[in-house]
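Objective 1b: paired records.
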Amino acid sequence: MDEIIAAENLRKTYDNLTAVDGISFVVRKGEVFGFLGPNGAGKTTTMKMIACVSPRTSGVLRVFGQDPAQQPAEIKHRLGVVPQETNLDPDFTSFGNLVTYSGYFDIPAHTAEKKADELLEFVQLQEKRNVEVEKLSGGMKRRLILARALVNSPDLLILDEPTIGLDPQARHLIWEKLKTLQAQGNTIVLTTHYLDEAARLCDRLVIMDHGKILVEGSPSDLVKQHVGEEIVEVEKSAEVLACLTERSIPHEMTGDTVQIATDSSREIVKILLESCQPKKMLTRPATLEDVFLKLTGRTLRE
């Protein structure tokens, strides 16, 4: 079965709040699929419905071809979940957390212990095997949570902000492990606020806002479709703004900078240098962050 997750007109409401507002998407076997959006966009709510934690209000949702409302136990048996919060058991060591969690899947003790050691090696925590959880660093805890999500050899991994709060080294290590898991045939669904993470990991993604899907596609395609190849940034001044407006060059102001999205930065730079008297200017490749800010705005969300 190529479709691991399929949703059609999926909705979730809480009293007068519509958290997910009629979204449709498909996640295919073996891909990394991302949900991006500002706080309150509906990402985590969608993940909870997929993980059989929160029932949908209406619409169609199938995971492994099964209905989470009707067959949650069968679906959960094939899931691995990395929650946003750190919820390891502080009463156990790294090894103890993995073995204890294996019990929820009726994995025999000998098999669980062997698997726990393999997973600790996989996430590079074998030296912390007998260390209590509270003595682990934040990055180590996130890696241990990833290991815990793998104890039942899941067909689908659900990751909610998997690298939140980690330093660059820890983030890159988790990226490496997720790519290894994908190469082994795992299907991965994730949410993240790190746009470089989404661009690096996701084969396809959606950007959500106010419970709706705004766009869907590969990171590179979304950048080309909604922004362009390059961004020219110029220090904001009355002269530059008047010059751009006079020549009908589309631009956006961000603080003390003017941004111009273009497929040909050479032409824009030539116009700026010859006619607009810029004080400071740089050219850079367009990114997924540019798409995200263009579609969802720059206003801070709480």
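Objective 1b, second protein:
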Amino acid sequence: MFTKNQKPENAPPVPDASVDVTIQVDETYRSIQQVGDEIAATSTWLAPLRREIGKMIIGQEHLVERLLVGILSGGHLLLEGLPGLAKTRAVKTLALAIQSDFNRIQFTPDMLPADIIGTQIYNPQQTSFEVKKGPIFSSLILADEINRAPAKVQSALLEAMQEKQVTIGDHTFGLPELFLVLATQNPIEQEGTYPLPEAQIDRFLLKIVVDYPTMSQERQILDEQESTESPINVIPVARPEDILASRKTVHKIYMDDKIKDYIVSLVFATREPQNFKLDYQDYIETGASPRATINLKLVAKCLAYLAGRGYVTPDDVKDAALDVMRHRIRVSYEAEAEGVTSEDIIRKLLDTVPVP
């Protein structure tokens, strides 16, 4: 027999908790090192790809980086900007440089869903219907001026963007593994446009606002136009299998639990701002959806991959927040009346929510 505070003679030694913590830290460190080595091995196509895009696009570093994030994550991108800011040019250059099939769909008010996904055509010789596939059956899709098409045409993209499949009649067809939709829209056009429904806009990983180039960049553009040399050719430098290998590595990048909590806090601050000492509850009609939480994690990992790191930092999350959440926060009429935008709210969140 032994008393309450007395251990039996043959009792095993009590494990030292500090030893377990040290072992866990060492394993995490080794895992991060292994992922870093894997990033170095799988990212050799990135530098040549940046170089090829740089042949055609002057400046727009943020746009180019976000295009790479879309390729690495497999998420769809919505590009918003005024005409003439190289949105379409950037996407076409990207398609040429990654050795992938590419289709450009110019959206117009008179389009039908069949113009995108395809339709069934009657074959009188075989007395049966045959499926004719539409331009959606491609790895890279440029949906140019997507907000010019009516809602029923925009909704035709929903199944393709979310499920990576298309249903035509009684048949369902899978889309390529590298399937990616890159949509553009003009923010100032009002006549003949249809705002994207919330269900569809939430399926875009990022909404990227493309801005004007700087004065020095615009001068360089002017000089390039005066050149009498032969047209610049984009050389294919990446293969789909290279990109798919990089995607697998992206998911292995380490993210600490504190950073995961930080992501959840940022998203919840858009739904319950009063709990984070923010006076924006009257400005936010609906907060960010759970897709914002998932996509913040994914984009932060992609940014870490582009930086050659096997781990995510809070700065990666901050860098991703604006593009991930600007189209997922719906502001109220009061906010619009006072000139408060979703971007203003996100910047305030980043300044207020404690950083780990």
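Confidence is low (pLDDT under 50) at residues 1-11. The first helix runs from residue 17 to 42.
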